[in-house]
Amino acid sequence: MTILYAVATIVGWGSWAAVARDVRSANSQAKLLYATLANLAVAAAVFALTGGSLPPGAFWAPFAGGVVWSISGLFAFAAIERIGLARAVGIWVCINIFVGLAWGALLFGELAGLSATSLVLTGLALLILVAGVLVMSARGAGADRKASRGGVLGAAVAGVLWGSYFIPVSASGLSLWSASLPLAAGMASGALLLALFFGGKAAPLLARPADYLRAGLSGALWALGNYGMLLLGAAIGTGRGFAIAQLNLGLSACIGIFVFKEQAPGSPAARRVLLGALVAMIGGVLFGLAK
């Protein structure tokens, strides 16, 4: 079962953004809305099937975290439009890890109990992650400078916010299993507000009937990765599970290059992105094992 959990995590988190990459709408936030609605449906089903319960007043902190997640999604999809899936995912995942570690240390004292060896490994992992980000964020020859800068900035903002949305979830004191439903509700509510007020004048409708399926599948895949990670962490430990989950970076990079041809396979730009993803994966795995 452990292998199944690992595959679910890697496939879910490595492909959810790719599935919705070419979904089109006159409303710029529509595909995020339908992805989060699908995730909410999955979360509600899991909550009901597992007999979940929420203490009075425990709903709102994870809900707030979900709203922050939805804002992250806004910047993430914008980054993919500008610099492609492979580069955008690599950048935001690395920054997500770094910011999450910083918040954990500052607010929850998560570094206080680590051994000297673990601290050294954590520092080395962060340096490797930074190297991976620098390699992937480099602008290729012929790329539009303004679009590239905007895409890198969007991916960076997404990484910062995705590294922060867990703060109200952790502060709630709920297990991640119990918090997943209000978190999903916050994600969908935030996406709805973004679609209504920041998506443009058009209604939040998608261009083609098939786009609804793709956007919904995107949200379901994110949920698959989320629950896969929870099960994987329970099976082999959070640190080792997190390390294995970083392989999703490689999957995203390969999809961007070999499926969407964002960089011509075999070109210097493609090799650079794959190298950056590999470096980032090494840093992410090392970080997970150091915890």
Characterize the structure shown.
The protein is mainly α. Helix content is 77%, strand content 0%. The protein has helices spanning 2-19, 30-49, 60-83, 85-108, 116-137, 145-162, 166-171, 176-197, 209-236, 238-245, 248-259, 268-290. Helix 3 (60-83) crosses helix 8, helix 4 runs parallel beside helix 12 and helix 11 packs antiparallel against helix 12.
Topology, element by element:
Layout: H1 2-19, H2 30-49, H3 60-83, H4 85-108, H5 116-137, H6 145-162, H7 166-171, H8 176-197, H9 209-236, H10 238-245, H11 248-259, H12 268-290
Helix pairs in contact: 1-9, 1-11, 2-8, 2-9, 3-4, 3-6, 3-8, 4-5, 4-6, 4-11, 4-12, 5-12, 9-10, 10-12, 11-12
